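Below is how a single chain appears once it has passed through the pipeline. First comes the sequence as given, then the structure the pipeline wrote out for it. We keep one example in the README because the format questions we get most often are answered faster by looking than by reading.
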Amino acid sequence: MTTVPQLRQSARKIWEAALHAASPSACLHRAIKVTNRILSVNGRDIPLNGRVIVVGAGKAAARMAQVTEEIFGDAISDGLVVTKHDHGLPLGRIRLVEAGHPIPDLTGVQAVHDMRELLSSLSANDIVICLISGGGSALWPSPADGITLAEKQEVTHMLLRAGATIQELNGVRKHLSSVKGGQLARWAAPARVVSLIMSDVIGDPLDFIASGPTAPDTTSFDEALATIEKYGISPPHAVLHRLREGAACRIPENPKPEDPLFKRVDNLIIANNRLLVDAANAKAMELGFQTLILGTELEGEAREIARMFSAIAKEVALSGNPLKAPACVLAAGETTVAVRGDGLGGRNQEMALAWAIAMSARALPVPCCFASVASDGTDGPTNAAGGLVDPATCRRAAELGLKPQEFLQQNNSFPFLDATGDLIVTGPTQTNLMDLQILLVG
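Resulting structure:
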């Protein structure tokens, strides 16, 4: 009979296979090729007759830039990419800046200023390769006129604590920025722009991934204002004033889909969380599990999703539905946490803790375990990627004198999982395709 330690080891193999498939190297080499100064991308060949400028932002930007240098070689004229602190890698022809995430900082602001200078005075023969991955919204801050960085930081922090979705957060960010919502494409005109995008947003909406710097904006000032009102937050006066002025049509909207600007822009999704799930599924089958993919658009409160996974685990163990053990149930997406306490953790760690609590009250006839992992290696403001728990997690906690429910109420999952030995720590993975959930029942 399979043991819990064996299941936990299988879970590790499954998420490692998923992360390997989601590496920027694999994704970029599948998407583009350069031969004799001809760029082949998205079914077309583009001559590299002018300058090649590389810009980018996101948690995967450093590795994406490394691979881009490998592919383009000395065809690259210049470049600048921004990534999160401690995510840097050595580059040759492209300058790298590390900046603040998820709260933007002055380093990021200066990097955007330098990038705008780099994109000035380009010709129609030039090409801009734009490398976009999750985290780009915070790493490319360029506050709009009348908005300070501190004010933008404050409203970002408020929305994060309130549990706003990435779509809602980026909808607000786009209307407080001079680079997001298609405005970078305007800076680069008349050059051709090819954006290579690793999606960390459910459904892959181009204008929400890193707030869509090269994509037409499908949102409005009205919608940004509605998000502020929905969560009942009180942002700085300048933020509220700008959103109200825009909603009253006294500030121009960001460029929309019909803008001729986008005729020379190609936005190409080179990876999303379907890639994660498919690779995880293939590895689970190789390990001998019956598999079921719940979907790639998992949303909702993390602790509620945990209860759903606990219910599935019990059903598989007790009835063999919806599939017989050994079973692997997979999902991907991005949940949220409405912060009620002052603890330390992230949505994946909170989900793992909530699952462990839900499973602790009833013994099952077969072993099981559950993992929730952030594909970028960073779950919330911690150095952990998530948690890997089993039904004995709460028993181990009790032996240490810890009360699981108190930790959950304080959103304090990190120290709890650290104490029980259930943290997942991968370090920066140089990719970012949302989160992966793995339920194994032996």
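The mean pLDDT is 95.

See the next section for the split statistics.
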